[in-house]
Amino acid sequence: MSLYLTSTGSFMNSTTYIQNKNLWEISLGIDDNYVGDSNLDRLRVGTKLVGKPISDAERALQMSPFAYANFSRSKGDFKGYSTGVELLKPINDRLGVSLKLEVNHNDVIENIVKGEPNNFNCTLGLEIKL
Fold first, then answer.
1. In whole angstroms, how far apart are CA 86 and each of 48, 49, 92, 101, 118?
2. Which residues contact 46 (CB under 8 A, 6 or more apart)?
3. Residue range 31-62, pLDDT digits in tens
4. DSSP string, the chain
5. Which residues, in sequence order, are CB contacts of 56 under 8 Å at separation 6+?
6. Which residue segment(s) compose the domain that 97 sits in?
7. Fewer CB within 10 Å, N side or C side of the chain?
């Protein structure tokens, strides 16, 4: 459970995982009035396939596609989205190189909470497990 405070109100997001053949992340978030009045008027739902190897190799490239949709909580109309893919190439058991490619438009977490621009974003990183 995460609580985000923005200049237009607070937003609460809950994430759970479902394991079948693959690991799925399921996310549900709503604006709330626990910390002042919220003018966000958002319901956010989405999913991510977590770390799906693209081959049977020991350190195969892992792919995590995701999609989140935003709706008006009061009217139910479509308000925005975030979609893309995260790639991770493990180098060894503790080190990997990551790449995130995403497109966002009026997404409550990416654009309002994080302040990312409405557009295409690319993030390159180094992941270290301690």
1. 10, 10, 18, 6, 18
2. 26, 27, 66, 67, 68, 69, 82
3. 876 666 667 888 999 999 999 999 988 899 99
4. -EEEEETTEEEEEEEEEEESSSEEEEEEEEEESTTS------EEEEEEEE-EESSSSTT--EEEEEEEEEE-TTT--EEEEEEEEEEEEESSSSEEEEEEEEEEES-IIIIIIS---SEEEEEEEEEE--
5. none
6. 2-128
7. C
Residue 8 in contact with residue 112, Cβ under 8 Å?
Answer: yes
pLDDT of amino acid 35: 64
Q: Are 31 and 41 a contacting pair, CB within 8 Å?
A: yes
Distance CA 91, CA 93 (A): 7
User: What's residue 40's pLDDT?
Assistant: 81
Q: Which residue's entry shows tokens 């690991």?
A: 23
Amino acid of residue 40: L
C-alpha radius of gyration, the chain, whole number: 16
| Number of domains making up the chain | 1
